[in-house]
Amino acid sequence: ELYMLNKKPRLLYIITRLDGGGAQKSVLSSVLALQKENEFEVHLAFGGGGILDPYAKRNVDNFCVLKKLRPQVCVRNLWSDFLAFVELAHLIHEVKPDIVHTNCPKAGIIGRWAACFSLRRLKVVHTYHGLGFSVYDGFKYKIFAFLERVSGYITNKLIFVSLSNLGEAHGLKIGSYKKNILIHAGIDKLKLPKNFDKEKKKFALKIPQGKKVVLGIGNFKPLKNAADFARVAGAVCTQTHDFHFIYAGAGGESEEAVKTLAGQSVTFLGFREDIEELIAVSDIYCTTSLREGLAMAVLEALRQGVAVFAYDIDSMGEVIQNTKNGMLFKTGDIEGMAGQMLAFDKNKFERIFDEKEFSAAFTVEEQKKLYKTFISPKP
Questions:
Q1: Which of 20, 86, 109, 245 is most deeply packed, by most CB within 10 A?
Q2: How many CB atoms are located within 10 Å of the residue 204 CB?
Q3: Which of 81, 114, 80, 82 is nearest to 100 (CA)?
């Protein structure tokens, strides 16, 4: 245990980069909530270049931009990764945290080993916002699994945001039954503008009257698989003009290729901060991700009673009740997903969502309970 005397516990969050994804929003939500409650002295460290950097810099009291931390995992970044390790070790020495909480693969590996080599008496926690590395084959998969397995030995607690990822980790011998715990990621309270008007919002988005709206959200990295969203849109739009597909998100190596593939079938909105409003004007939320921890946008859609069409991967079956509040499909089943959209009847779907279990407030409370198990008043 760590013993505290007349000071607040100091907590350092580390994340690879603040891209506009669910993991990043979840981390920022936790940081800001803990900062507001003022029980902990909260610090945030992140690699630069993310689309949410300006938001973090405006709202987080104690932050550090890690100049050497790069998101890509590749041989050419090995020297940068070593420098990021040194940078983080120095930051840990300067901040002197009682608890280091890492998030996302790159920051998770480098941050935990930097904490280990700092020789400070601290506790280390890591959150898996999905096990994205398991989509790889062969040697690359074995390397990632080995690194996660070894890093688990120097971590006090491993948090998983879904039961499916928790079970998968046990199968890969990452962590242990005692060390691994489930804390669902959660979403903030609904914040639609007062007197929100759906028709005015549709008009502002140039959505033609009477069309069913299908929304996709995400970046253009391989795991988000936006290309299949474009393929579904193309398959539907060749059959009928009753649908309007929109996609919110930016960044990632396949952005231009996806836009070319989609042609006129999808309206691309770029990065948006009005996600709740976009969901509110939609009839279907569609995600073709190949891996997810617990997708924040899916939770947002289910909360608003919007039917979710998704590949049956990871945690999707934990929140989507097939044919009740959404539909699940085998990965790559473009034809099946498009066919069900063409037959879509909004009245057949229900609003099924656990407001407490998947709330950001509940997530933060569970994290606080964990942190407090590490800390006791000095006797």
A1: 245
A2: 12
A3: 114
* Angle at the Cα of 303 from the Cα atoms of 299 and 307, rounded to 5 degrees: 80
Output the CA angle 96-102-104, nearest 5 degrees.
155
The pTM score is 0.90
- For strands 63-66 and 41-47, give the pairing: parallel
φ and ψ of 108, to 5 deg: -65, -45
List, for residues 127-154, the tens digit of each pLDDT value.
999 887 766 667 778 888 899 999 999 9
Query: What whole-number distance in Å separates Cα of residue 241 and Cα of residue 212?
Result: 10
Distance CA 258, CA 321 (A): 29
Q: List alpha helices for the chain, DSSP H.
A: 22-37, 53-59, 78-95, 105-117, 138-153, 163-171, 198-204, 226-237, 255-262, 275-280, 296-303, 316-319, 334-342, 360-373
Sheet holding 41-47, edge to edge: 63-66, 41-47, 10-17, 99-103, 123-128, 157-160, 180-182
φ/ψ (deg, to 5) at 85: -60, -50
- Condensed to tens digits (0 to 9), the pLDDT of residues 10-22 reads 999 999 999 888 8
- Count of other CB atoms within 10 angstroms of residue 62: 16
CA–CA distance, 131 with 238 (Å, rounded to integer): 35
Contacts of 47 (CB under 8 A, 6+ apart): 15, 16, 17, 65, 66, 69, 70, 71, 84, 106, 107
